[in-house]
Amino acid sequence: MGHGKTVQDELRGPARELRRMIPKVYAGFGNLAEAALSPGALDAKTKELIALALSVGLECDGCIAAHARGAARHGATPAEVAEALGVTILMHGGPGTVYGPRAFAAFQEFHEEGKAGDRSAG
């Protein structure tokens, strides 16, 4: 079972419909996300790792999928993701041991997709 692409696929239609109903809310959220995740004192990869870890703590599958993809796109390694998720398990306890593996599986989906894209570009 995919924990990344499947979740994003399931949410795509309902999210699109809701976005049409409340476009200003989505635009504001998009601006906030862009500002929060843009490189600054912390690089974008670190920010995506933080967001992924928080997604596990919030037990939000949609957030996990989005930030697993973001972490993969910004060059996070499986070891970096695993360590970030280890901190989440420390801070969140038992639920972290359920949602942490989901987050790692989602990251691996997007990480493998990126590696396949790298091979085809060469």
Automatic annotation (TrEMBL):
Leader peptide range in chain numbering: none
Tell me the InterPro entries matching this sequence.
Answer: AhpD-like, AhpD_core, CMD-like
The record's listing under Pfam families reads:
CMD
Domain Carboxymuconolactone decarboxylase-like, first and last residues per copy: 23-99
Instruction: Write down the NCBIfam families for this protein, in alphabetical order.
Output: ahpD_dom (TIGR00778)
Q: Which PANTHER family match?
A: ALKYL HYDROPEROXIDE REDUCTASE AHPD, BLR3452 PROTEIN
Name of protein: Carboxymuconolactone decarboxylase family protein
Q: Which organism is it from?
A: Pseudonocardia hispaniensis
